[in-house]
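Checklist before submission:
- one chain only
- standard amino acids only
- sequence pasted in full

Submission:
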Amino acid sequence: MKTDNINEIFKDLDFDLAEPKEGHKDRFMEKLKATQQKAPQRSSKVRSLWAPFIGVAAAVALAFLLFGNAINTGVMAKSGDLASVSPEMKETQNFYTNLIEAELHTLQEEKTPETEVIVEDALAQMEKLETEYSKLKKDLLKSGKDKRVIYAMISNFQQRIDLLKNVLEQIENIKNLKTQQNENNII
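Returned file contents:
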């Protein structure tokens, strides 16, 4: 393009080349000072005092919301328990766990010198089942909540309960035999 064309392009455009009136800067500065003086001092102090506290409170609330859910979800997901699968599985796990604890408590109460061997053996078998359950928890994490692993975990709970019930039945049989033998030995 030629320089003549550029001049022609700018010639048609209407530029405002007028200078501001004399004292424009002074009038502008006076208006600026007047608006700054009109601003109430009280609200700016209140605002300046509460602004950091509100900001900190909002940040803390946001952190609890975000990190609390992330940590809770992460812990639940990493635990590999049935509770991490669904709310129904959480109820199932709680049911079995409470039942097993109650049966173990009953078993400990029934421990006597005559039943000590049976109780110790049952506790050893419970440890094996607990170890197996720990492996199943790892498998659940690896498998992505495979239903077969979930069924195996529920089956493990059922095996523990069956074991405890069988041991408690054996202890009852021992008590009954002892009572019957003592009845026969009375003269």
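Reviewer check: Helices lie at 3-12, 24-38, 41-79, 87-109, 116-143, 147-185.
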